[in-house]
Amino acid sequence: VNFFCFIVIASSYIIINFISGKSSRKLTDKVNKALKKRNTRLQRKISVIIATDFLCWVPFVLLCMLHTLNVLDGTAWYDLFSIIILPINSVINPLLYDTTITGYISSASRS
């Protein structure tokens, strides 16, 4: 169920990314350059969101599948995921979605 949900969400973000990129390629004049720049930032943000979700959730989903299939005993790993890794994802997501914080981080990284 978790993996299916991840696939649906990631697919939705990829579609948004694709449509945004397609519209960015059509923009050429000066007025549209600002829109193109905004679309590029949106695409970058979507890519980071997908990557962080992937890195946090897919290992957990694979562990659960292997545990369910009796390939390995994942009981010892559940604490690591539930106490450390998945909460990290919960902390990262609001930072990625909030434009104020991402603007601050990008300006700080430029200096």
Largest sheet: none
Helix content: over 70%
- Strand pairing plus helix content: what structural class? mainly alpha
Number of helices: 4
Low-confidence stretches are: none
Note the overall shape: elongated
- The first-to-last residue Cα distance is 43 Å
Give the DSSP E fraction (strand runs of 2 or more residues): under 5%
Average pLDDT figure: 78
Question: How do the SSEs run, as a string of H and E?
Answer: HHHH
Number of DSSP strand runs:
0
Q: Over all CA atoms, what is the radius of gyration?
A: 18 Å
How would you portray this structure in words?
The protein has 111 residues and is an all-alpha fold. Helix content is 89%, strand content 0%. It has four helices and no strands. The mean pLDDT is 78.
Helix/strand layout:
Elements: H1 2-26, H2 30-68, H3 75-97, H4 99-110
Helix pairs in contact: 1-2, 2-3
Keywords:
single chain; 111 residues; mainly alpha; elongated
What can be said about this structure in brief?
The chain has helices spanning 2-26, 30-68, 75-97, 99-110.
